[in-house]
Design a protein that fits this description.
It is an enzyme of class 2 (transferase). Keywords: ATP-binding, Kinase, Membrane, Nucleotide-binding, Phosphoprotein, Transferase, Transmembrane, Transmembrane helix, Two-component regulatory system. By secondary structure, this protein is of the alpha+beta class. Among the domains are: 1-56, no CATH class; 269-380, Heat Shock Protein 90 (2-Layer Sandwich). The protein is built from 10 helices and 7 strands. The chain has helices at 5-25, 33-54, 58-64, 111-124, 129-148, 153-226, 233-260, 276-285, 303-317, 351-361, and strands at residues 78-81, 101-104, 289-294, 322-327, 332-336, 365-371, 374-380. Strands 3-4-5-7-6 form a 5-stranded mixed beta sheet, with helices on one face. The protein has a two-stranded antiparallel ribbon with strand order 1-2. The longest helix is centred in the middle third of the chain and has 74 residues, at 153-226. It is rod-shaped. Residues 77-95, 263-274 and 384-391 have low confidence and may be disordered.
């Protein structure tokens, strides 16, 4: 991994700082210059190698720093004295004299680097066995050091606490941090995926509601031309081909919408400038016999989609029939009479389902079905509620 200039600067500063701490904690350079040069020089060299490889391979840095582990039994972060007899050996000694004074977690200046790279190992490791092998090697080294010191029990306590504090705990903290970051990333990816699904659903419903309505009007006009009296055979044939093409385009649109939509998360959007009057005027221009009655009061947010779906159904299944649209704050109704011409073979099935779900989410109710003289779609919106799917 190529380092940036800033990373190189940080690594050099870290190495210099650790080297100063190692020199300060080493032998007296004036009393024992030879020992100081060997001990401090070895520590500085190991620290330099660890810093050199530690950014890319923190576990390798931990291996390099094994000689600088918590093996100094004369130092400790905390000293606990267990002395139940005042330091006097008696025949009823309740605690071993070997544990009268114990160094716990021998922390020195050089073990700061051990702590850091053990933590980095946990942050970056995807498998546990390499770190387990290194920590096992550290335990073997520690056991050898304890045995070389005489195998006293207090040395074992010091060594074990040092291994746990310098290797195991930082590694586990790094692993916990890595898992938390991975969980956060998975959550962000899930949120992004849900946003994409909602956008796909919005596109699907907008395509169905807008393009489907326009294609239905095209098919209605073509069907009217096809059966118009006095039309030349070639023109009637062309009108029939146009009607069939509109039907096929509607079918392809339905297939595309089926791929895009998410039945469990309907999120269509109402057009910003949705105007029921303009919608009715466009239907009249296409040849439909549509009347509109709008009562005083606020127009429900669901009115546009409800009227659009009702007009689309009438155009598809009852060509030539009269259509009565009634909009009030408490009720939206689209009613059509019996068909006076041949119904166009335009597939459908999603519009009423999507509208019913939209009304349900808004807290209202919807009915759609045959009546005495035709078909009626009725929506009863919840008073005072906005369309929950409005952008």
């Amino acid at each position: 991994m190529r380092r940036t200039p800033r990373q190189v600067l940080y690594d050099v500063l870290a190495w210099l700082g650790l080297s100063v701490l190692a020199a300060a904690a080493g032998p007296d350079p004036f009393a024992e210059p030879g020992v100081f040069a060997v001990v401090t020089g070895g520590r500085v060299l190991l620290l330099g190698l660890a810093v050199l490889v530690g950014r890319a391979w923190p576990l390798a840095a931990s291996v390099i720093l094994l000689p600088l582990g918590p093996w100094d039994f004369g130092e400790g972060l905390a000293t606990t004295t267990w002395d139940f007899t005042g330091g006097v050996a008696t025949t009823d000694q309740l605690w071993p004299l070997s544990l009268v004074s114990v160094k716990i977690f021998p922390l020195s200046a050089t073990t700061l680097a051990v702590l850091w790279y053990a933590y980095r190992t946990g942050r970056s490791a995807s498998r546990a066995w390499p770190a387990t092998a290194v920590f096992g090697a550290a335990a073997v080294i520690g056991a050898g050091v304890v045995l070389a010191q005489g195998g006293l029990l207090r040395y074992w306590v010091t060594m074990v606490s040092g291994l746990i504090g310098c290797y195991v705990v930082p590694y586990l903290l790094g692993t916990l941090r890595r898992l938390l970051l991975q969980q956060r990333e998975r959550t962000q990816l899930s949120v992004a995926a849900q946003a994409r699904l909602r956008e796909r659903t919005r596109i699907a419903h907008d395509m169905h509601d807008s393009l489907g309505h326009d294609l239905a009007l095209i098919a209605v006009r073509a069907a009217g031309l096809e059966i118009a009296p006095g039309l030349a055979p070639a023109q009637a044939k062309a009108a029939g081909e146009l009607r069939v093409a509109a039907s096929e385009a509607t079918e392809r649109l339905r297939e595309i919408v089926g791929l895009l939509r998410d039945d469990f998360d309907p999120a269509p959007l109402v057009p910003v400038a949705a105007d029921v009057t303009d919608l009715v005027e466009r239907s009249r221009d296409s040849g439909m016999d549509v009347s509109l009655e709008v009562a005083e009061g606020p127009v429900p947010a669901l009115a546009y989609r409800a009227v659009q779906e009702g007009l689309t159904n009438a155009a598809k299944h009852a060509p030539g029939a009269w259509v009565r649209v009634s909009v009030s704050p408490a009720r939206i109704s689209v009613r059509n009479g019996p068909a006076r011409g041949r119904a166009t073979a335009i597939p459908g099935g999603m519009g009423l389902t999507g509208l019913r779900e939209r009304v349900r989410l808004a807290g209202g109710t919807m009915t759609a079905g045959p009546v005495d003289d035709g078909f009626e779609l009725v929506v009863l919106p919840l008073q005072g509620e906005e369309d929950p799917l409005r952008a």
